[in-house]
Amino acid sequence: MPQYDYDLITIGAGSGGVRASRLAGKYGAKVAVVESSRVGGTCVMRGCVPKKLLVYGAVFANHFNDALGFGWRIGEPMHDWGKLIAAKNKELDRLEGVYNRMLRDSGVTVVPGRGVLADPHTVEIGGKRITGDKILIATGGWPVTPDFPGKEHVISSNEALDLPERPERVVIIGGGYIAVEFAGIFNALGSEVTLVIRTGHLLRGFDQDVCATLGEELEKKGIIIRRDCTVRSVEKTGGVYSVVFDTGDEMIADCVLAATGRAPATSNLGLEQVGVKLNAKRAISVDGQNRTSVENIFAVGDVTDRINLTPVAINEGRMFAETFFNKRPMQMDYTNVASAVFSQPPVACVGLSEADARRNHRVRLFITRFRAMKHTLSGRDERTMMKLVVDKDTDKVLGCHMVGEDAPEIIQGFAVALKAGATKAQFDATVGIHPTAAEEFVTLRDPVPETDT
After folding, report:
1. What is the number of structural domains in the chain?
2. SS3 385
């Protein structure tokens, strides 16, 4: 008889866990996936996918206005929030069915319930125990809400995706990608939006010119940004909320959304009891093969708090399965991983920011700001910003940054170039496609003088 019930037990059916489990099953392993919520995880059910669907719905507001400049006559656009949410939910149901089928087709057993480690080889789910030779933790992250009086009245991004009605006045706490994405959604659909950020700029960790450009564009759209500000308390009064800031002033809102980051979902999993080490942020510490401090227990995705992006978790899951179930050892390369923010306008980047590059390189900067050709007729007051960070000594392009329409689609292609080690001379030798915004990246000729050091 086999020593264990399964060759692999995965706790968490998100992007990383599903990819690892499917491949392990495909390679002949007996696999179980334990999931306490919906199969698909944060990205598919509570993050990237539903949020992008809402973004698609919201940007039509701009498209209707733009059309007037091109000769279209349209009536007064009216938006039905409930219909958008219902359509989004229908798509999530479809995707969950697809994920379940992919697991079934790979021979993977889905075990509903919350999995807790009883020992290094045993997972307990609601009183039932199953054993596995290897255990993979892929529980992702969970929204964090600041601690202040009235925090119980504040919703997270999870609830924001399922609001029964669109709030007319929204206060969003935070200046990261989730905050600016929801600010764009609510603003475009007609809500009054106030962003409350502790620092002086949005998108901490992004390039300084990206942060400044996005802030300017959001304010043009009527989004209020309260910089160097925190929320002192929230109080419910009737059907609205009184929000008091550290400055002492107050505003009334119909909804208060905390978008202040996410923390690794490591609580109450039995990790520390079986010897799995967590770091200072309570993320699971792993080595290059995703192995924890316990030899047979592994972890991938946001629960490890490395680069918290869905494609990264998927690749980590793939490399885990290839290494341990297909005899093809692989390790993830975390350099030049592209990322995007689906704000309005969107942001995308790959490589180093100017500040990060300056720590170890002498740099040349190439920046362009322009009004996109489309808006010469649409009349929209929106500008695009593109930036290249180049190593002065080697001519290698270290970073590529953009704020503007289609930025994520454009940067994806340039991510390949940076992964291949492209130089500025190779960018210059590339013939652009005209007329496009993307061609600006290969026609930048003059470095910014004041930073040519």
Report:
1. 3
2. strand
Question: Is 331 part of a structural domain of the chain?
Answer: no
- Its pTM stands at 0.95
Q: Are residues 256 and 267 in the same domain?
A: no
- The reply to whether 434 belongs to the active site is yes
For the chain, the maximum distance between any two Cα atoms, rounded to a whole number of angstroms, is: 75
First-to-last alpha carbon distance for the chain, in angstroms, is: 69
Q: Could you say which DSSP state residue 155 is in?
A: B
The two structure tokens encoding residue 394? 């080697």
| 272 shares a domain with 384 | no
Q: What is the DSSP string of 226-287?
A: E-S--EEEEEEETTEEEEEETTS-EEEESEEEE-S-EEE--TTSSTGGGT--B-TTSPBP--
> Is the Cβ–Cβ distance between 222 and 206 less than 8 Å?
no
Domain that holds residue 69: 6-142+263-325
Mark whether 156 and 255 lie in a shared domain.
yes
Average pLDDT over residues 81-86: 97
List pLDDT tens digits, range 209-244.
999 999 999 999 999 999 999 999 999 998 999 999
Domain boundary among the residues 222, 243, 260 is at: 260
Residues in the chain: 453
DSSP letter at 302 equals G
Q: Report d(CA 241, CA 75) in Å as an integer.
A: 34
- For the record, the structure tokens of 315 come out as 């690749």
Say if 1 falls within a structural domain.
no
Same domain for 68 and 164:
no
Interacting residues of 436 by C-beta distance below 8 A, sequence separation 6+:
none
Domain with residue 215: its CATH number is 3.50.50.60
Q: Which two tokens stand for residue 329?
A: 């050892």
Exposure string for 357-366, b = 16+ CB within 10 A, e = fewer: bbeebebbbb
